[in-house]
Amino acid sequence: MTQLKNLIGIFIGQVNGEDFESFDILYDSSNTFRNVVYPGEMQPDEWPKYRYLFLELWKTSDTSFEEQLERERVKCRKQVASQLHARLHKKYLQENRLLEQDLDETERDKLVSKTTLLYKDMLGYLSKKSTIDEALVQSSLKTNK
What we know:
Helix content: 55-70%
Distance between the termini: 42 Å
Radius of gyration: 17 Å
Number of helices: 6
Strand content: under 5%
C-alpha cells in the first residue's frame, strides 16, 4: 500500500488515507515530479527528464557502476535544483512585484530553503534517504550562473 501511495504521490499528488476506501488525493501538491522536475506537458523531446527519475530509482550491486550512477545522479540533482529554484525565484518576484535587486539575503535564503524542502519531499516519495541539502542547491546556483 505504501508503494502505491508513493507512486501516486510522486506523479499526481499527496495521498491521505490508509486504505482504498479512504484515499484522498491532494491534486495541488507542490512536491510532485511535475512541479519539481518538469512543470510543463511532457513532450517527446522532453522524455530525457524521466531519465533522472530512473537514475534515482536504479540500484545495483556493481560498485564501479554504482559510482558512475551516483555521479550522474549528482549532476542531474544539480540541474533539477537549479531549474526548480529559478522557477520559484521568478514566481516569487512576480507575486511580490519585486525586481531582482530588491531581494534581500533573507528572502534569497528562504527561496533556497523552499527549493530544498520541495525537492526533498519529492525524493521522499521514492523512499530515498535524501542527499539534497541547501549546500547542493547553493552549489547548483553557482555552477549555472
